[in-house]
Amino acid sequence: MNVAVLTRRDMAAAPINRLLKWLAVADVFVMLEYVPFSIYKYLLLPETLDFSYSWAMYLLFHMHFAQILHTASICLTLSLAIWRYIAIKYSDRSHVLCTERRCSIAILSSFILPPILCIPTFMVFDIHTKNVSDTQGSGLVYHLDSNNQGSLYQINFWVHSVVIKLLPCSILTVISLWLIRALYNANQHQKNLRNYSACPAAEKMVKRQHKADKRTDRTTKMLLAVLLLFLVTELPQGILGLMSGLLGACFFKRCYGLFGELMDFLALLNGAINFILYCSMSRQFRQTFRQLLLQKHFARFLPATASHSDSHNQNTYTEKIKSMKTSIP
């Protein structure tokens, strides 16, 4: 629904909405890919104890795919925060700094950088085999595990916790605090303008400025809510990852695994709740979504010849213009 609304013509023009659209794309692929993983882990595996090579391959793919796209989501969220910071801090130069080309570069970089950052993860985790025996016989089982020997294991956790998690969270914390301060200053500025409006001419100007400021504040509040929700879901993962790098494999297997499902739940919740945030905090998003629903709902009741008549009228008008031009000496 986010992608459907943010790709409408009146919404897609803003670079902020382009960033939000690709953020929704990354989140929806993470959530869709999580469905077969959940079915296998919580429904099939407890019943059948199927540790086949094909499922081990899928788990390896699931881990890398989800990690790459989730990292892309982190990069897009960081780009979103920096973009809004520049638009407010340098509002007089925002048309030069916040261009469509730079927005495209930010989006492209957000999808190119994650595979590079995840290279240590590719090298650490692999499929392992184990001989097991029971009453029915013996055989090989395949499972996913890390190669916890050597410095690459430590490097992976440092990259994952510090570069991918804690560093973006630190930057977002600083920008979020600055945005909160900017909102407070904007409210004080609006109060001063209302007190200043003594004459009718000044009152009209103040009302126009007040509407523009309210629109800017609504956008900033919505993005601030997205950033704070991101911090709540990502900061605990960064802290646990950092402690895993400091304390070693024992902490990772005993403690990180206990909170792994909660961390996954928070990450999925972060992607799923954005639609509610947009609807509750953006009037333009609500209006576009309502129009999209009404358009699809009432499309079958529209006359089928409407587009034909419109094109016929347009062609007639064009022919009249051409005949007028030829008649001018």
Helix proportion:
over 70%
Shape: elongated
Structural class: mainly alpha
Tally the helices. 13
**What's the rounded overall pLDDT mean?**
77
Rg for CA atoms: 27 Å
The largest beta-sheet arranges its strands as 1-2
The string of secondary-structure elements, in order, is HHHHHHHEEHHHHHH
Distance N to C terminus: 56 Å
Report what the structure shows.
83% of the residues lie in helices and 6% in strands. The model is unreliable at 304-314 and 317-329 (pLDDT under 50). It is built from 13 helices and two strands; from the N terminus they run H-H-H-H-H-H-H-E-E-H-H-H-H-H-H. Strands 1-2 form a two-stranded antiparallel ribbon. The protein has helices at 2-6, 9-12, 15-48, 53-89, 94-97, 100-117, 119-124, 151-196, 200-247, 249-272, 274-281, 283-298, 306-327, and strands at 125-134, 137-146. It is mainly alpha-helical. The chain is elongated, with a radius of gyration of 27 Å. Helix 4 (53-89) packs antiparallel against helix 9 (200-247) and helix 8 runs antiparallel to helix 9. Its main location: membrane. Keywords: Membrane, Transmembrane, Transmembrane helix. It holds the Pfam family 7TM_GPCR_Srw.
Compact overview of the structure:
It is found in: Membrane. By secondary structure, the chain is mostly helical.
Write the layout of secondary structure elements.
Elements: H1 2-6, H2 9-12, H3 15-48, H4 53-89, H5 94-97, H6 100-117, H7 119-124, E1 125-134, E2 137-146, H8 151-196, H9 200-247, H10 249-272, H11 274-281, H12 283-298, H13 306-327
Antiparallel strand pairs: 1-2
Helix pairs in contact: 3-4, 3-6, 4-6, 4-8, 4-9, 8-9, 9-10, 9-11, 11-12
